[in-house]
Amino acid sequence: MAENSIPKEAAFQIINDELMLDGNPRLNLASFVTTWMEPECDKLMMASINKNYVDMDEYPNRCVNIIAHLFNAPLGDSEAAVGVGTVGSSEAIMLAGLAFKRKWQNKRKEEGKPYDKPNIVTGANVQVCWEKFARYFEVELKEVKLREGYYVMDPEKAVEMVDENTICVAAILGSTLNGEFENVKLLNDLLVKKNQETGWDTPIHVDAASGGFIAPFIYPELEWDFRLPLVKSINVSGHKYGLVYAGVGWVIWRNKEDLPEELIFHINYLGSDQPTFTLNFSKGSSQIIAQYYQLIRLGYEGYRNVMENCRENMIVLKEGLEKTGRFNIVSKEDGVPLVAFSLNDNSCHNEFEISDMLRRFGWIVPAYTMPPDAQHVTVLRVVIREDFSRTLAERLVLDIQKVLHELDTLPSRINSKIAASIGENVDNGTLVTKPSDIEATRKIATYWRKYVLEKKKTNGVC
Ligand SMILES: *Cc1c(COP(=O)(O)O)cnc(C)c1O
User: What EC number is given for this enzyme (predicted)?
Assistant: First the structure.
């Protein structure tokens, strides 16, 4: 920190200049997080920027109430859903996980059984926050492996992995990797059966970070929420398809008993008795105001229109990519509106090169490898948000075609996939297994250039 202050104009200029170097958030197709809201809502957010969340009674409760209804929480004298606003789904998941862990421990203590080895069953496709929860709060994560062509948790395998130490099975409504909805209903039915056979009462949590604001509007018949008896808690990110800027998530418990009382703190130094169950005490309240704005401004009709529109733009993009004949689509039409795709096997390029080259057009499209046992599959992923129009979808297809064309005319590029497979022929039969080795890479590059030129001569393609 400098000894002296600087003029406010100078401080503003310095930071404003540097911010110009950040990518344009609206062209960042990697993120599910909202990048556009109506100006009226921006105004409300600015007006509440100096308010602390802990001083607000009404708005968080109203949002919890609306979202609990949206997720079909049972209503009645004996059952009443409870919930809290969080910074995002990660915090929501920490809280939900803690509730499951404490509930399981209490039961085990009562039964006089050991309670030191809790575990959670999930698919290997879980978002990193589950791994964080597991490590921070000392719960073993038992992951159901994926396989090529199947990128979500297999409910049968998940239920097989459940044992007496399982605090919950976490299903995902909208896998981060390909947007696919896991089959929560089948999971529920299989788990009901297993619980009957074993006498356990293993519950389900649904991580609906991205799907929680999609399914109720465009797949209302799909049973994934509190309509299923074993679903005890659900989280959703307000800042994804809840259509609010970054900084808000929600977790809803089916009823009071699903949230152990001992985790709730009661404070009275702000005026009235106030129950609190969050990791942080103070935080901004603008996002909560914005969430409330969206819920009352859009209603069912508005959310349905936005989600249907996203789905239509997803289909425009998907069909455009299919038409190139160069990609396999690994996302589903039903699910979170995104397109995940990999190059055909006979391609000479890889997905990372495409991602890299799209940056030149301003697009941020991530490429990543799938988790075990599908780690040999690489995909590119485009998330369709409210502000991604049909025009942009068509423009992106054109730019991808340009990139493919450019790659096709660049024979000197090393393709690691093919380079590795031809590695055996390099250096008089010495097997080159580490293309990261500089010497070896050079040899492969030389060989590859010759190989491509040969091939081009013979059949016009690499
Ligand atoms: C984004 C996401 C999360 C994490 O949510 P944040 O709101 O970013 O903390 C968790 N699970 C899934 C399935 C997600 O897509």
Answer: 4.1.1.15
Range of the domain at 462: 410-462
Q: Are residues 340 and 436 in the same domain?
A: no
Q: What does the alpha-carbon distance between residue 231 and residue 382 come to, in Å, rounded to a whole number?
A: 30
Ligand 1 atom index nearest CA of 126: 13
Per the structure, the count of domains in the chain is 2
Residue 60: CB atoms within 10 Å: 22
From 33, 34, 120, 127, the mutation candidate for ligand 1 (largest count of ligand atoms within 8 A of CB) is 127
Domain assignment of residue 2, yes or no: no
Q: What is the pLDDT of residues 154-201, one digit of tens each?
A: 999 999 999 999 999 999 999 999 999 999 999 999 999 999 999 999
Is residue 279 located within the same domain as residue 423? no
The answer to whether position 1 is within a domain reads no
- Specify if 16 maps to a domain: no
Give the pLDDT confidence of 224-260 residue by residue, as tens digits. 999 999 999 999 999 999 999 999 999 999 999 999 9
Contact 171, 215 (CB under 8 A): no
Q: Which of 408, 430, 450 is a domain's end point? A: 408
Residue 384 · residue 371 · CB < 8 Å: no
Cα torsion through 309, 314, 317, 322, rounded to 10: -140
CA distance 407 to 350: 10
For residue 48, being part of any structural domain is answered with yes
| Predicted TM-score of the model (pTM) | 0.89
| Residues at CB less than 6 angstroms from ligand 1 | 32, 88-90, 127, 129, 172, 174, 176, 207, 209-210, 237, 249
